[in-house]
């Protein structure tokens, strides 16, 4: 009799949990229909009494994901790190999708590629809302490269993805060539669960580089390019004005010269 009553109690708990999940699904259709499929798959960690006493854990996918941001200057390995994390997710057989802004076609339209030629398939999109439109129901991991080129709506899109239980990995420049915060990256840094800031090597003195020096004559904020347009620089050897390759002037020497005048 005690065993039967214990089993009936567990059955009652399971019925209650199923009913609660059904109510959550119903409410989600009113607020955000796209969340319904995630609620079907996601079950929070639940504690159930064990027939032998104590607590047994029942684990599901969970209702919440998280956000990881990889940032730094040019040539610091941001995309390489994004590809590494995506590759690990593939090895674990997790369904993933990688997105990038359509304007970045330096290494092919349908690939995210690092400067050392590592690459992974990606989906080019025109704006941040296209990510939601192209998202597949079974996707558990989303990668976003060159996030600085997206509109500010990316912050809300990323938040919605995380609330659906998706792991979001973002890579992008934290500063433009003038050393100013770039695009939606500052807000993403503030709201992410984890932040990885990478550095390169200054091409003038060899110190850790955290800034991107424009060596072409263009003053446009957005200019796609690689070694022909940018150099990694430390704080001392970076200056906000574009410089020609021949007319390179170390920033520290320039500051000292101006102070003596």
Task: Give descriptors for this structure.
261 residues; alpha/beta; 6-stranded parallel β-sheet; two-stranded antiparallel ribbon; 14 strands
Class derived from helix and strand content: alpha/beta
- The neighbouring-strand order within the major sheet is 7-4-8-9-3-10
CATH topology of the largest domain: Rossmann fold
What is the β-strand count? Answer: 14
Q: What is this entry, summarized?
A:
The chain is α/β, with parallel strands linked by helices and 261 residues long.
3D architecture notes:
The protein is α/β, with parallel strands linked by helices. The protein folds into two domains: 2-58, no CATH class; 66-198, Rossmann fold (3-Layer(aba) Sandwich), CATH 3.40.50.300. The chain has helices at 2-31, 36-41, 78-91, 129-134, 154-163, 185-191, 251-260; strands at residues 46-49, 55-58, 66-72, 96-101, 111-113, 119-121, 123-125, 141-144, 167-173, 194-198, 200-201, 208-209, 211-214, 230-233. The chain has a six-stranded parallel sheet, with helices on both faces. It has a two-stranded antiparallel sheet with strand order 1-2. A two-stranded antiparallel ribbon has the order 5-6.
């Amino acid at each position: 009799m005690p065993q039967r009553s214990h089993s009936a109690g567990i059955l009652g708990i399971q019925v209650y949990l199923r009913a609660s999940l059904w109510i959550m699904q119903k409410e989600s259709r009113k607020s955000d229909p796209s969340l319904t499929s995630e609620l079907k798959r996601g079950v929070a960690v639940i504690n159930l009494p064990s027939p032998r006493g104590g607590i047994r854990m029942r684990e599901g996918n969970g209702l919440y994901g998280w956000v990881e941001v990889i940032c730094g200057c040019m040539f610091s390995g941001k995309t390489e790190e994004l590809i590494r994390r995506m590759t690990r997710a593939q090895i674990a057989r997790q369904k993933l999708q990688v997105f990038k802004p359509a304007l970045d076609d330096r290494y092919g339209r349908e690939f995210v590629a690092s400067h050392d030629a590592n690459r992974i398939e990606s989906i080019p999109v025109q704006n941040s809302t296209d990510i939601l439109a192209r998202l597949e129901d079974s996707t558990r991991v989303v990668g976003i490269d060159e996030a600085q080129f997206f509109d500010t709506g990316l912050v809300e899109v990323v938040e919605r993805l995380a609330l659906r239980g998706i792991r979001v990995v973002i890579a992008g420049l934290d500063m433009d060539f003038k050393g100013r915060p770039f695009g939606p990256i500052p807000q993403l840094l503030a709201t992410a669960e984890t932040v990885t800031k990478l550095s390169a090597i200054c091409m003038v003195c060899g110190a850790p580089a955290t800034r991107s020096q424009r060596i072409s004559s263009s003053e446009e904020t957005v200019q796609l390019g690689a070694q022909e347009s940018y150099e990694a620089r430390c704080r001392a050897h970076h200056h906000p004005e574009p410089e020609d390759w021949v007319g390179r002037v170390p920033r520290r020497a320039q500051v000292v010269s101006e102070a003596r005048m």
